[in-house]
Amino acid sequence: xxxxxxxxxxxxxxGTPVPAAFGSEQAGSRSSISLDRSASVVDNLATLAYxxxxxxxxxxxxxxxxxxLPRTPITRPNKDELKAAFWTTKTVTTPTAHVQDVxxxxxxxxxxxxxxxxxxxxLRSPPMPKTMKDKVQARSTNAxxxxxxxxxxxxGTYREQSPDLEELPFTQLGAKIVELSxxxxxxxxxxQAIKNMVRAIRVLYNRSQMEEKNDKNTPNHPVPxxxxxxxxxxxxxxxxxxxNKRVREKEGDPLKGGNRTANLGNSTSVAKPKTSENDGWTKxxxxxxxxKAKVRTRPDVIVISNKGNLSYAEILKKxxxxxxxxxxxxxxxxxRRTQKGDLMFELKRSSVxxxxxxxxxxxxxxxxxxxVRAQKHExxxxxxxxxxxxxxxxxxxxxxxxxxxxELTEESIVGLRKAYGGTQTATxxxxxxxxxxxxxxxxxxxxxxxxxxxxxxxxxRVAQDLLEQATFESEMExxxxxxxxxxxxxxxxVKDSTGGAAIWACGRQAIQxxxxxxxxxxxxxxxxxxxxxxxxxxxxxxxxxxEQMLDDLVLDAKGxxxxxxxxxxxxxxxxxxxxxxxxxxxxxxxxxAQMDIVLAxxxxxxxxxxxxxxxxxxLTFVSPSxxxxxxxxxxxxxxxxxxxxxxxxxxxxxxxxxxxxxxPKKISGWFAKSLDEQSFLEVWLDQPDIAGASTERAVHLAxxxxxxxxxxxxxxxxxxxxxxxxWWNDELTGLRSxxxxxxxxxxxxxxxxxxxxxECAYKAARKTLKLAIQRSKRKCFRxxxxxxxxxxxxxxxGIVMGRFKGRSSPQITCPALLLKIIQGLFPQQEENTxxxxxxxxxTAIPPVTRDELLEICGRIGDNKAPGLDGVPNKALKxxxxxxxxxxxxxxxxxxxxxxxxxxxxxQKLVLLPKPGKPPGEPSSYRPICxxxxxxxxxxxxxxxxxxxxxxxxxGLSHRQYGFRKARSTIDAIKLVxxxxxxxxxGKGSTSKYCVVVTLDVKNAFNSxxxxxxxxxxxxxxxxxxxxxxxxxxxxxxxxxxxxxxGPQEYVVSAGVPQGSxxxxxxxxxxxxxxxNLPLPExxxxxGYADDIALVVVAKHLEDAELYSSEAISAVKCWLESxxxxxxxxxxxAVLITKRRKRNYACVRVGNxxxxxxxxxxxxxxxxxxxxxxxxxxxxxxxxxxxS
Length: 1187
Description:
Layout: H1 2-6, H2 38-43, H3 45-51, H4 58-67, H5 79-88, H6 95-110, H7 132-146, H8 158-161, H9 163-183, H10 192-216, H11 237-245, H12 287-290, E1 301-306, H13 312-321, H14 326-331, E2 332-337, E3 343-347, H15 355-366, E4 370-375, E5 378-387, H16 392-403, E6 413-418, E7 423-431, H17 432-441, E8 443-446, E9 449-455, H18 460-474, E10 479-482, E11 493-495, E12 501-504, E13 511-514, E14 522-527, E15 530-536, H19 543-557, E16 563-568, H20 583-592, E17 598-599, E18 608-610, E19 613-615, E20 618-622, H21 624-627, E21 631-634, E22 646-649, E23 667-670, H22 677-685, H23 694-712, E24 715-717, H24 730-748, H25 755-790, H26 795-805, H27 815-825, H28 850-859, H29 873-882, H30 884-897, E25 906-913, E26 925-930, H31 933-952, H32 969-984, E27 993-999, H33 1010-1020, H34 1024-1033, E28 1037-1043, E29 1046-1052, H35 1063-1071, E30 1083-1088, E31 1091-1098, H36 1101-1121, E32 1132-1136, E33 1146-1149, E34 1152-1155, E35 1159-1162, E36 1165-1168, H37 1174-1186
Parallel strand pairs: 15-16, 25-28
Antiparallel strand pairs: 1-3, 1-4, 2-3, 5-7, 5-9, 6-7, 8-9, 10-12, 11-12, 13-14, 14-15, 16-20, 17-20, 18-19, 21-22, 23-24, 25-26, 27-31, 27-32, 28-29, 30-31, 33-34, 35-36
Helix pairs in contact: 9-10, 19-20, 22-23, 22-29, 23-30, 24-25, 29-30, 30-34, 33-35
Organism: Hermetia illucens
Region (Disordered): 1-36, 97-161, 211-292
Domain Reverse transcriptase: 893-1167
């Protein structure tokens, strides 16, 4: 409803402007034809009717021909020449019309005006007949009265002189159309669009032929009156024909719109002479200015969503074959698919009121195979000023009796809430036709009260747009919102169960934790150590419901401190500046007295303003520790809402310490876009190389690169500057200020004479701002589309993906919470004290060549995030290409010494929140470790030497498809589905049962056992220098993360870094043993990284269940011995079979028995029990529709 109401309706002119006519004020007028081509139009009149169309469409063809003639300059004749031409080219007219023309000229001459002077207003002849039968009667009468005297028609009137001459071309035209249609019917080289046009021409010809026959069979045409006849004036035949088409006549009132006198003088204030019924000229007002845009109603539709095994074609056949749906077949206008692919029947507009019956019939016909729903074009209305005892039943009865709304039910009254002054407001959902009728009436009597009817208008969208801009301008950290228009995605937004209260972390502070289950009417989130509550108590709540919400709020907030409780409570009390205290206010004070909080509202400034009155209903309560030094005020910023914005600022003070000054901004890295390559090379090439151990040389290399970066790039801040909305501009800023001024003027004009004028000006300013925002969004969206064509991954991509995924959540900085999350993500394990000794045979180490370094640089992306050193990849690649020997010698020294430098084993932690997970829990984040790019280059060098050894000696199973070249998820899925297809192949007893079980490992990569990795490498038999440097790589690793207390360090003793080069290969080496476990012959293990799929095939279902349970038990035991944990609650299974003995299987996972599902998701593909993949198609289609 809101989308339809907000839609902007525009009326545009149709057709092509025609040349200016004599007597027209402005060239290019569409309602007149040039005088110098009028004669040629009249000359072609007979030929045009004879060769092209029937006399029924004569006037249309004349107007079409006249408007398509080439433009020629108009030379205005003098008065004498004009008079002579007027009388010499005069054609035959009806006597009455001629007398009327002479009478009008005499009246104007008596007034001292020249009847031949140019008119300043449009002249129009009497209205044309509305029906085709009236047109035939008018032409027949005119032909009889005029006689055979028209130019270009020597045969006289067509019907009386030679009717065969008229029918012969029309019949020939039909024959040619049929011949052309049959000729192209079976031609494959004719475009389908041409066939469609020929088919349409044939249909139109048949329709015209039928109308012609009906007109010929109509007997006894009455003689038309003056109001029906066409008045013909000299040299202006086509002008009057065109004007007659634009005049519409009311029955019984031939001169609709008032009498009009031909005004041929210069003065615009001419007295209108009296006219009678025989007057042929009428003065018609500008109907285009009076025309109002009508709201176009959408037709009702019936949507069918497939839920069974039937295809949409089968569903359509079943519906058409049902004899009980014959009435539906006559009321369907067209059948098409929705954007989601559902089947949709669009009903005719004449079937209004039958949609629900048709939906019920279709639902009964299809049963459980499909879900059937009806969609109507409905509008929401508000019925105001109801008394406080009126019920929904009384509203429904009153509307039915007064407006004959038979389809209205109590369910159409979607809401009935309390309003101010002891009144109620009802929200009514009615069809569009009924809504227009109710809005036209404007009022309805319900009981003893005459109530107002208004369309429900929501201003929330513009208000939230302005809020987003305000967060940028005022640098807000937290926004507490009541009744938001839309909810955001990501970990920066939390809401209550009703959606009326929300908290938006719009700044640099992250949401540390929130409630696992949202309450009704309130929601909380912990931000920067403060528990922030957002509340909304709508006026529709009864007193008991309001008190129940307060009890739940107090019970939840009692044990948390410090806290802020703010929101729209819709309660009055003298304590916060209301005129009086009501029951809600007293209940609120009594409930909050149980908590240690104080009221932060200051003064008696109204937070709600509407209609010249206001109240204080938006309240803020805080803990005493936050109240000290707190600033609170009601902002004068324009919000496009009836509520004012409330700004408050506070500071959390550590216990036992004085309030510290704000910390300076952290400096991290360099701004890569400002890199000056020449300056970088000048400083970099001057840096000397040093000799010594690999660790010292690695530190020296980092220092040299940092000096070159300082000389060529500016430093960047850790927290980037906020950006405004992409559609905001200076025009919107000015319109927002104008709305603010208009609102203040309207508030000050209450009770004065100009109050109505000021309120209208305020409404107009609000509408102007709303439309300007919409225009700006459309314009900027088109610009983004143009930018996307040039740069698909530029600003347009960032904005669109930001809308889909939501803004990335700020990093958590609370030290205690971060430590809790890190300990859960990076468990501690026993470290191996035995280390490899450096190899003695240094000559066996392959050298690092220049080509290898350049190939490694080609793999590094310029926009990848750097590690702790902050060196941009673009600058590092420039350094490698200019001095590759320096890096090659350092990497060779590291391998010969068997040492991976400690400076490159530092990893910077970045926590990515998982969607839909509660903040504050370790499982709600995906840890990413940012490593120095130079260290990743050394990892690539080791990887290039370790991978061939592992692959050549058969160290990895052929059923491991993750992190391996020329292998992907598609290969793993093909193996699983191939085994299942082979199992169910055949008929009857020849087919088998197949059970597919997917296993998930908790926190797999961060829990990888280093000792197990060393043992697996020893089994493969890698060279000693590789074993030594890998052993050094897996020791003394440090995790760095930023907190409010500064950078912190955490010792890591297990896992492979996510984001490293060497980590995936080491994981595959360690995880390879699980793929080679001694399992039952009927079981096959398929691996992709840490994902495991067990495929068990057996002749009997009981055997398949037994083998599945045994295989799961063996895998679980190996994981536990390796320090990994199986997530039993995430284990899923599906039974694939053609047999009908049983469609489910039961397998044991530890102490749990799980039942197979109809379908499971494996590596992004939904595998169902019949391998039809229908559910996967539906899932992907839904994702595409959302995107």
